[in-house]
Amino acid sequence: MDSAKTTRDEGTFWAPEDRAWLWYNDTIESHAFALRVLGELDSDDERRHGLVQWLLLNKKLNHWKSTRATAEVVYSLVHYLAQEGQLGAREAATVEIGPRRTELVFEPDEYTGRKNQIVIRGDEISPAMATTVVEKETPGFMFASATWHFSTERLPEEGSGDLFAVTRTLYRRVEENGERVLRPLAEGERLEVGDQVEVHLVIRARHAAEYVHLRDPRAAGFEPESMSSGYRWNLGIGWFEEIRDSGTNFFFDRLPAGELTLKYRLRAATSGAFKVAPATLQSMYAPEFAGYSAGATVSIDR
Which CATH number applies to 160-301? Predict the structure, then answer.
């Protein structure tokens, strides 16, 4: 346990193995086994809760590659719940969205499914509802997410994200002393038709995830230099890159924890002032985990 790391959002975990694809290097089984051992040897160690949190979060963002790994986790979680007095227990939560208060109850022998959702429509929303508070008096873990669906002409001035984050930077490619160099495109700087722009997308993942989608919208005045979609491979990571009229999509089968920079080039084709919507990085099967970049405005002269 001395080599384990504990964070507020991720729980308790270890760095992945160098060869995690080998059958005897299974990250899920290792964490489940550590939880089981910790429950037997030191049941008061607070890190046991962090191990449970990491396992549940990993299940939301990934698929477990074997029935053995799933069985190991279920076996360890049953013993953990029994020790904590949570096995077959009734759970309750309170959700406060501004002045609106809702009580949710989870019985151990009844599946409530889609009923565990609170929808507030546009005509019911007030400024006070900008704050959402979820409280839980009963023991154990609970995942909750709040999502806004809205439309606005105002671009975000800065990016945001929790486990996922994405930053977009635009560079103008210019020739200096016979070489091509990159200059950051300053806010309000004007381009000319024919200028070449290189887009850098820096994506950060604090937790390993599978089936992740990165969408980078393209301003209407630009055309992509590469017109062919296809599978790409770089820095030990593979993804499918899809070129569309409105932007570029990146689909990751596997996105490890860490930082990755993606690059592609555009050509200024039409004069005018154009807005660039933020790039978004989101889990396809757990959409509550997402991040987005700042928006931008680009001007192109003839």
Answer: 2.60.40.690
